[in-house]
Amino acid sequence: VHQSKLDFFCKLGYGKQDICKVLENLGQEALEDDVLKELIRMGSKPQALESQAQPSSLKLVARGSCSTSPGSKWLGEDESDASDYLRPIVIDGSNVAMSHGNKEVFSCWGIQLAVDWFRERGHTYIKVFVPLWRKEPSRQDSPIADQHILEELEKQSILVYTPSRKVKGKRVVCYDDRYIVKVAYEKDGVIVSNDHYRDLQNENPEWKWFIEQRLLMYSFVSNRFMPPDDPLGRHGPTLNNFLSKKPVLREQKWQPCPYGKKCTYGNKCKFYHPERPHQAQLSVADELRAKIKVPLSLGKEEEQHNLSP
């Protein structure tokens, strides 16, 4: 009897010591209800209730979300790895420097402005290619300004010199444009230059497509590096999408018709008319297809009607 009652109250979650004390006080023949009342009077609680009463370290989290500690870790990883979503940048140093110097002086300050602009956006892979002979002192036929910037960028592993040497007093220069396009193509990055590299486009069809789609042109406005907001034209991607590996698609918005109510194209107009709420935005080809399908369907219905008794 003692063992059966002990097992019964143990299943309810009460401790063995409390059960034994109650049974000693009330006797082995005490009813289960009396034992339960005495356990409650003593303040004994089942282990399940005690575990609920204790403050838990776990917190309730909304469905579909993560707990606090992993969430904070992932947020930190997203912030630290934000550069993984940005494309590598390969800068044509000669083109940028000559553009900043108005095609008269090789201005190294222009290269620094371009590098700083991409750094502020969060790009970590930035490479600038400049011919090796630009290390030589400035001359009248090829003046160089702020040449110390090249040394600083080289120490930061940003600037790369393309090979050049002198043979019998003549300078032999390797084609730096080939380095620029090749590295940008292999890294799936962006070329920063106002040069179109037409000779390299004719060499390789893959390079042709890459140069057409990944060439970022720019302008200098009062010592400010300014690439266009629409690098591939009005109907192309924005600058943010152009420089990111995972572009954010924006919703398509209808452009209002420039002629307004004076438009004579009717439903064939490809622009949006606010005064026509039920305007069918169909192309001419789609309208012709729709007109062809209607009589065919009517003919089939008439045949079915004639065949039916």
TrEMBL record:
Leader peptide range in chain numbering: none
Keyword Repeat: no
Membrane-spanning ranges: none
Chain ranges of zinc fingers (C3H1-type): 251-276
One Pfam match: UBA_6
Co-factor(s): Mg(2+)
GO molecular function: hydrolase activity; mRNA binding; RNA endonuclease activity; zinc ion binding
UniProt keyword terms in alphabetical order: Endonuclease, Hydrolase, Magnesium, Metal-binding, Nuclease, Zinc, Zinc-finger
InterPro entries given in the database record: Rege-1_UBA-like, RNase_Zc3h12_NYN, ZC3H12/N4BP1_RNase_Reg, Znf_CCCH
Coiled-coil residues: none
Keyword Zinc among record annotations: yes
Limits of the C3H1-type domain: 251-276
GO cellular component assignments: cytoplasmic ribonucleoprotein granule; nucleus
Family affiliation: Belongs to the ZC3H12 family.
Protein name (record): Putative ribonuclease ZC3H12D
